[in-house]
Structures are given as structure tokens and as C-alpha cells.
UniProtKB/TrEMBL annotation, chain A:
Protein name: Unannotated protein
Membrane-traversing stretches: 9-34, 67-88, 100-120, 132-150, 179-200, 206-224, 236-254
Family of the protein in this entry: Belongs to the binding-protein-dependent transport system permease family. CysTW subfamily.
Transcription listed as a keyword: no
UniProt keyword terms in alphabetical order: Cell membrane, Membrane, Transmembrane, Transmembrane helix, Transport
Membrane topology classification: Multi-pass membrane protein
Subcellular location: Cell membrane
Keyword flag Kinase: no
GO biological process, one term: transmembrane transport
GO CC term (a single one): plasma membrane
Automatic annotation (TrEMBL), chain B:
Pfam families from the UniProt entry: ABC_tran, TOBE_2
SMART domains per the UniProt record, alphabetical: AAA
Protein name: Unannotated protein
Record carries keyword Transmembrane helix: no
Organism annotation: freshwater metagenome
Annotated ABC transporter domain residues: 7-237
Gene Ontology terms: cellular component: ATP-binding cassette (ABC) transporter complex
Keyword check for Cell membrane: yes
Classification of source organism: unclassified sequences, metagenomes, ecological metagenomes
GO MF terms held by the record: ABC-type putrescine transporter activity; ATP binding; ATP hydrolysis activity
Keyword annotations: ATP-binding, Cell membrane, Membrane, Nucleotide-binding, Translocase, Transport
PROSITE patterns reported in the protein's UniProt record: ABC_TRANSPORTER_1, ABC_TRANSPORTER_2
Amino acid sequence: MTISRNARFLLATLLGIGLAFIYIPLTVVVINSFNSSRTFSWPPTELTTKWWGMALDNTGVRDALKWSIIAGLSATFIALLLGTALAFAVSRYDFFGKDVISLLVVLPISLPGVVTGIALNNAFTKQLGMSTGLLTVVIGHATFCIVVVYNNAVARLRRMGTSLQEASMDLGANGITTFRLITLPNMASALFAGGLLAFGLSFDEIVVTTFTAGPGIQTLPIWIYNNLFRPNQTPIVNVVAATLVFISIVPIYLSQKLSTDSSSGGRF
Amino acid sequence: MSAAVVVSIRSLKRSFGDVRAVDGVDLDIREGEFLTLLGPSGSGKTTVLRMIAGFEKPDSGTITLAGKDVSQLPPYERDVNTVFQDYALFPHMNVLANIEYGLRVKGVSKEDRRKQALIALKQIRLEGYENRKPAELSGGQRQRVALARALVNKPSVLLLDEPLGALDLKLREQMQIELKALQREVGITFIFVTHDQEEALTMSDRIAVFNHGKIEQLGTPREIYENPKSEFVSEFVGQTNRIEIDGKKINIRPEYIAVSSSSSTGDRSVKGTLRDEIFVGSATRYLFDTEAGFSMISTQLNKNLKIGDVVTLSWPREKEFLVQ
């Protein structure tokens, strides 16, 4: 496709503005986490790592980081198990209501977090009589983490086709051996990418977390939200925010790289 | 040939929804023979192969393998191996691991299976390629690895599902010869599925011609070509002129029709005018309108004819055949 010079210029400008809107504020946050001025005068006159040191020493931050990692890993683990199983059921077997199930699994990612959060909170506390805590956060996060694992797994299974499994069984391997030696190794990169995305989603989630966490647990995003308007905490908030940005970028980058790298190695 | 029957198929049926893919097939396959299931796509040949392998279960009928009814057994409990159309090599394993796979899952010791895999690798002339991944091989090499991966298990029957379909013409012709030689060497029964009639005629000991889920004719390549039992077989295998003489419908292959400018040279003859010619390299197909009203094709070494030339077409009567 060829586009005229003017159109190209216009598109480049719009792209630039769009990217600037997203990334300039993020960059400011990251730079400010090193800004030595307590009032964050701009541009920074001097850079320092003292806020980072303070954040590391802050027990509130350390606890929040711990809870975020535990919740993220647990939700990812559940999502990997259930998402893979669902992907298998939907792409390898025919059963009544298959399309509906496939839609229902994917739906939570597009549902408003507020609705999911309130509904889950209601179900946990009113219907099931559970108290909110780590378990409810993990279940809440798993609802949308499953989606990315499921989507990745379904796409990979579709591309793999059934002939590798047939070849394995033809050569004498039963279903379990075939899964272990053939199917799983060929899905591993897709599942790893899905797991990374799931962890990234869980790590910076705030809405569902608010409704499912209860008073005992603070994840990093909730800690930021609670401390945002306390002026003396602002330097640490910047540090935590910068950390969140980095931790969220890495999984996305890796999973994108994995998906493109493995796209050529599927079938023959 | 009176070798023992190794695969015996009786009243085999299989439907997919409303489509009767396989509609009552009976077939005995002898030990050590090269049998081809030939037919257009959708004729049921591949479904029969997949039922022998165990990937599909028959709706009714039986498949007996070396005297044992295997109709309901899963693929991994049958002593057959398959070469797939897309090869289905395991992309995450190197060539050697691919070939060893069958022995590995059967619990053969590491040393033994390595030794056998290396012999198989030598057989397909790919020594030195053991550490390559399938993605690093050419189409022909993948094909050979797929063959070795199946044959190393020494199955009593090897199933081949259009294995040459993805190769270019030159390589395909070369592989046809190699495959036939390999089959003679290992002495294993080959059941070969193809829609390519030339391939079937070249390689097979016997051919089963499939149409609409049934076997239309079973016989040696020569029987199938020279004495087709039905209109479908005569059309599908080679070209044929279907004409009516003295109220009788007869068929005659184009290569038996001689063209001469003077008198006739066979015991049947008719005058014809050249309407068109199709050059196919080694020969030319000439299309004539005859004075009897029908048109005829004659395949000849390239002749010096011009459109509109009037000639005599003649052929020996014994080469004619009747079909139902």
C-alpha cells in the first residue's frame, strides 16, 4: 500500500501525539522517583536513590509487594490449570453448549471490573459466608487471568492440529504419554506467554481487588491508591508506581516475543 | 501371488453426519503386497485407511489384522504405522528423537533404540542429519524421516496417506521409485492412498478403485487399465474414447487409435477431421470430429498434422472394451 506524503505526515503526527499522551506521564513518574526535591520541582536539579531506599525499608510497601506476588502467582497457577483444561475441552471435543462455554470463559475480561468485583464480593460474603482475604482475591483475579491463558492455549492447539497427537498414538503412545511428550512441549511457549500476561494483569489490578481483598490485604495498586493523597508518602508512591510499570512491561514484552518467535515452529 | 492375508476388511461402514463416507467395503490385503486405494477426494479411501490405523471407529463391519479383530482397539494397540500426508514430524524433537519415538514409548532401551534408529537413518540416506530439527529439512527429507520413523517399528502393515502429495513433480517421481524399492527391501505390506492414477499404476501390486464409499474395482494395474469394469474406472484411470458403433457402446484408449492419411491399418476405421491438438511434451493429443458423428482423441508421438486435415482413424478390435 502506498500513501501520500501528507497522509503519512498526518499519521506520523497522530501516532506521535498518541504515544506521547501515554508515555510522557509514565516517564515523569519514573524520573520523579529519582528526583531529589521533595516538592518535585521540574526539571529535577539533582537525582537521588534515597526514595528507593525509603520504599524498600517501608514495611507497608514490602507487605503490599509480597501480597501482590502471592496473589499474582496463585491466580496465574489456577488460570494455567483451568485455562489449559478448558482449551482442550473446547478445541478437541464436541459437546452440547460448546460455543456458549467458549464465550462465557472469555467474557470476564470485557466485563466492567466494578460489576465483577461487587458480584464476587456479594457471592463470597453473603451467599457463601466467606470472609474476604487472600483466597477471595486469588479467585477474583483468576476469573480474568483464565481468559488470557485460555486464548493462548486455544490458538496454539488450533495451529498444532491433531496430526501430531495422531502420529504419537500411531507410534504406540497412549493418551497420557502423548500429552506429556508431544502436546505439552509444543504448548509450553504459549502457556508461558499466557501465564506471564496473566501475572501482569493480576499484578496491577485494582478494581476487583478492592471488592475482594477486605481490610487485611493490601496489594501494591491498593497501597498506592490509599497513599496517593498523603503528601509525605508521595516520593514512595512514585517509586512503587515506577516498580509497577517495570513489572508490568516485562511480562508483556516477553510474552509478545514468545508468541512471535514460536509462530514459525508450529506445524509442518 | 498366494501369500497369507494380513488385513481383512468385512462390510466396513462409516458415516459422517448424513454423508456415507465408507459404504460397505470388503477387502483382503496380502502379506508383502503394495496395495493402493485410489479414488477422487471424498471417495472414502482415506477414511478406510484411518479406520485401519485406528483414528476412526467403524459404524459397523470388522477389520482383522493378522487374524485378530482390531476394529475397536485404539491406534497404540495396533501393529500398524502411518506416514501422514503432512508428515506430522514432532517439531520439538530432532531427527533421531523423531525416529526413536516409537521404540522409546514401547520401552526399548536407550542403546537399542539408538542403534536401530541409526540403521533406519542410513536406510533413508540421511546419515549426519540426526541432530537437525524437522524445520531444517527439505520436503523430501522430511518425507524420508517420516518413513523411517514408521518403519523402525517393523509394523506388519505400513499405511501411507498421500505421502507424495506435497512434493514437486520431479521429487515425487523419484520418491515413487525409492518407495517401491524400499518396500521390496523391507518386505512389509504397504497400503497406499492416492488420488493420482499414474502414481497408482506405477507403484502398486494391486489397486482398489474407490467411488462413493465403495470399491468399484480391485485388480492389478494392468487389469484396471486394460479391462476397467465400470465407466467410472475407465474415466478415472487413464483417458478413454466412449463411442457407439452399430448400436453398441464401446470404449477404446486414445493410444490405440492410429492416424493415417491413406487407408486403414486396423480392423475398425472411421474418417475424421482434426479439430484441435494438445501438445503434452512427449506426445500430442489430437481431437477429431468423425464422420460417424462422435469425436475421438488419439494420442500420438508428435505428428505433422494441421487443423482441418482429413485422415483415417483405425484401431484393433481386441483393444476395445465394454463397460456397464
